[in-house]
Hints:
Helix 4 (267-274) packs across helix 5 (290-299). Helix content is 19%, strand content 30%.
Amino acid sequence: MTDPFATLGFTQSRLVRHSSEQAEDAVPPPDARGTRLVLLAGDALVLRGGSAILEAEDGVRANPLITQERIFLGHLDGRPIFAAVAAPEAAEAYAGDGFRTLDLRTIATEGAVPQDELGLLATAKSMLGWHARNRFCANCGTQTLVRAGGFRRECPTCAAHHFPRTDPVVIMLIRRGERCLLGRGPHFKEGMYSCLAGFLEPGETIEAAVARESYEETRVRVGAVGYHISQPWPFPSSLMIGCTAEALDETIVTDPTELADARWFDRAEVLAMLERRHPDNLFAPPAMAIAHVLMRAFVEGRA
């Protein structure tokens, strides 16, 4: 049986998180002894060798281009670790000398860093992205202040507290007998098929979201829904909730604004897609994606 977490991106982390519940004096200064750093240059992470965990002094060359407050993530192996983002041109300062820059999706797909770094990088990217998009109070419009090392923002005018958010997404392997339903988004690479997916809406259960998204995208109705596995997805900050669902009918009617195509595949075809040997050059998402894990579970009779 395949271990789903062996290749699933962003699920493993050694980070001992800070939180909004801890006192302000629990946040060390960014130049504290032993401090480490996760640094983005625009949307690209700075790597040194095979790691994106830098020493504090490695960030010095980016300091003039830092665009927002450093965020205290917590402790890694007993040492404090911060996250910072600099303007995209900071990447030029990290060309050579053992450094390089690479976007997070490519890092995960290519295995450019150890698996247990990916969860930390997802936290850093999601947190920095939230701060960049939420600098003003949603209640009164005043510019807010960073508190709790970055796990909270506070409004100095109306005292409102604002916290980082995660957007839940359902992604589902829909099966009927020995076949499963897969689709192609308009933006997918040619030949790639994946599981259907969509955001949960306010006041909606996971089960209802699975049924609604399945019907909206393919007009296939589903009955029983089960939970399988989840995955943080820091683009910008989602939680993918992997589910299985039993289809109640087979006729597919796709909405071209949602899907370029959808069809039923048997287990042998799905295995061929996972192994990149399908006769029609069809293929599955990479192993770091939750859709790949759901498809493999279907092939192995676990979904």
